[in-house]
Write a structure and sequence with these properties.
The protein has about 240 residues and is of the alpha/beta class. It is built from 9 helices and 12 strands. The model has no long low-confidence stretch (mean pLDDT about 95).
Length: about 240
């Protein structure tokens, strides 16, 4: 029965797959998320962020964790409350669709117009949003399963969604990326070069959407090499003009 709400005009949700296949990537990403707020809040002072951790509802104890929207120093407490379970159910699928349904039906941002959602992960999602999982984890009364692609597409109408992908395995990557591309559009699936650059890439995508990419590049050049800057520039520009 839990719901989330924010009065911010520019809320942001950052979700991270914390299952075993992600290895040390979640820790690297979470360590750098305070930088995300510090940078983006310079462009939009009323920015509020909610963090989410995604697992597998078929096997994990904590398959869906999502924090309240917060800003400033309160974000540290929210990040520290997330537990990186490191489980997962195998089969190159995790419960991203359960998270998507929660965001679509349980989160309210009445003052925002198509806010940003960044989803970090490496696997695909289950084809159906399980009604039994919805009843168990979200406290609803759903009696039928929902098509996961339909849920993601509906979420993409309300939120500016990007899926930032770590490679899973050479034999599965094309299949996984095709599933995400069908749900969100292939232009919204961005390959991650490394865990260390994962947050910088999200920063670049949001900063460009907000019209502050030149300032972001100047900020990045002060702390990264030209090689790293060019890598981020290439990945951001490959997305095209997505608003």
């Amino acid at each position: 029965g839990r719901t989330l709400s924010t009065n911010s005009t520019t809320p942001l949700v950052v979700a991270v797959d914390v299952t075993g296949s992600m290895s040390t990537w979640p820790a690297e990403i979470f360590d750098r998320l305070p930088l995300l707020y510090q940078t983006l809040s310079q462009y939009r002072p009323d920015l509020e962020i909610s963090f989410a951790a995604i697992g597998d509802a078929t096997s994990d104890s904590y398959p869906l964790q999502i924090t309240d929207f917060a800003a400033g120093v309160a974000l540290e407490d929210q990040l520290n409350a997330i537990y990186g379970e490191g489980g997962g159910g195998g089969g190159a699928r995790e419960s991203y669709e359960l998270f998507a349904y929660f965001l679509l039906t349980k989160v309210r941002a009445p003052n925002a117009q198509r806010p940003y959602l960044i989803v970090y992960g490496d696997e695909g999602f289950y084809p159906k949003v399980s009604s039994s999982q919805l009843r168990y984890y979200l406290g609803g009364r759903e009696k039928r399963d929902r098509d996961s692609v339909d849920v993601w597409r509906a979420l993409g109408e309300a939120w500016n969604v990007f899926h930032l992908r770590k490679s899973y395995s050479p034999g599965k990557d094309a299949e996984i990326e095709a599933q995400w591309g069908d749900a969100l559009g292939p232009e919204r699936i961005v390959s991650l070069p490394s865990a260390e650059r994962a947050v910088d890439l999200a920063l670049g995508l949001v900063a460009r959407g907000w019209g502050h990419y030149e300032d972001f590049e100047e900020n990045l050049s002060a702390r990264q090499s030209m090689t790293e800057l060019n890598m981020i520039r290439e990945r951001v520009s490959s997305v095209g003009d997505v608003r």
